[in-house]
Amino acid sequence: MTYRRRTVTLGDVTFLRQLIADHPSASRRALSFLVCEAWGWRQDNGAPRDAVCRGLMLKLHRAGLIELPPPNWRATRPAQRHRKPEPIEIDQTPIVCDLASLGPLTIALVRRTDDEAVVDGLIEEHHYLGYTRPVGAHLKYLVRAGERPVACLTWSSAPRHLAPRDRYIGWSSEARKQNIRYVVYNGRFLILPWVQVKHLASHLLGRMARTLPAHWEQTYGHPVYFAETFVDTAIHRGTCYRAANWVPLGQTTGRGPRDTSHKPNRSKKEVLGLPLHRRFRDLLQDAP
Length: 288
Description:
Number of strands: 11
Largest sheet: 7 strands, mixed
Strand order of the largest sheet: 4-5-6-7-9-11-10
Shape: globular
Order of helices and strands: EEHHHEHEHEEHHEEHEHEEH
């Protein structure tokens, strides 16, 4: 069995059986930390890969190869965990000026801070796509002019398969599997509707290109070399991305990631990309 690029051997199964027998009162989560420690299974930032480890053990448990203890907790109202963000009450007095008159802008990383709820709520209420909980690694930003919020951005792990991006990078299937973590996806970019400042959007994208790689490496222990996003050209033209040197890569197929019909089931999007490192192709094409 192979799980998350780790080959699981009979010796691993024997080890897990013995570990569970030696710790009869340990929870599933506690067992996963013990396994991560024994196997040296860690993320790039040094944190144990306990969620991945629990997924592996659950797979082995369901296959009848190991016997896990009963779970300590079950969600009785799972929908509550994914409820929509609450609306945010803020000053909506129009801001109409040029970029120079707007004053100093602060771009704050807000994940796991009190301001994360502000970003989620503003995106849910004012972005045409609403808020969607990011999957995998992700960062969120709140932009303020003085004390007033003016924009929000979210970044997350990139989709594994994206033909226009893959052709542009020119990497092999093996290189993509190894290096997809070095690509980051701009899932939401919101300039609040009462903020009318020419060139603000492209200015923020330019600053994010300089800020994001360091924050990502600080949070997740590895850099990012390429950024990408989707633009629904039936609604937006993506002018601010082009003004910030993002490159048109092509169109999506109009099919979702789990599509089995091979027929378009949603609007096609234009794919735009931005190299974050001058040697991005060499770095992404490398497959040890």
